[in-house]
Here is the input.
Amino acid sequence: MDVRFVVLFLLLTTVVFGETFKLFMKDGDYHLVREYQVQGNRIRYFSTERGDWEEIPKDLVDLAKTEQQRKAHSEQLVKEARAQDEEDKAERAQQKEIASIPMEPGAYFKPDEKIESLKQAEYQILTDKKRKTLQMISPLPIVPGKATVVIKGEHSGFVIHEGRPEFYLRLAKEERFGIVRLTPKKGMRIVENIAIIAVSNENIEERKQVETFEQQLMGNLYKVWSEKPLPAGEYALMEFSGSEDKVQDDIELLIWDFAVQ
Here is the structure.
């Protein structure tokens, strides 16, 4: 037998049969009781105030009101017990979910209860004057003008066959993150365009960011998924430094590319 069913059954039994309720009198008064018995023209009840069995004439007791309110109270307690059981069940499921994600920082996908690690993509910065290949999180000191962040190849090798995939991100440090749509172009995929401001030496990043839901599961572990189904195409999970206005002095990116088919 399911252990959770046994626990819930015992809890509901305690709620229904072990509760204290009011035995109403017709004069408006009441006694707090654990149970009562109708014995002819007498009512025998166990008083929780005095911890003993007592008797009272049946004509003094408002049995209809007693049963009506006792039933309503019992139903509410049963409802609360079931809600608590569902909450506990959800909490256990989330703890199991958290424990299944590796402790190493990175991006993970979990189809059919199997954890798959996304490979971190190497990217290039293309400018008018030079091309710079960045490994992992090397910062980008580039000259004023325009630049484009790209990944080699027009298609990702990590293919997902669902429109709203759920990803897990375990961050190495607290940074903003999200899902962006990539643009395939002549043997590469464009991640974002950057405008470099000469005077202030700041970078303005322009990317096709997807609207997402984000849930912090624990500490540096987050779940992220798109608000709407993703059309077939090329995408990437990204961590990026900088403020919300996307203006900063250098560029640090972590990119995990994937495709939706």
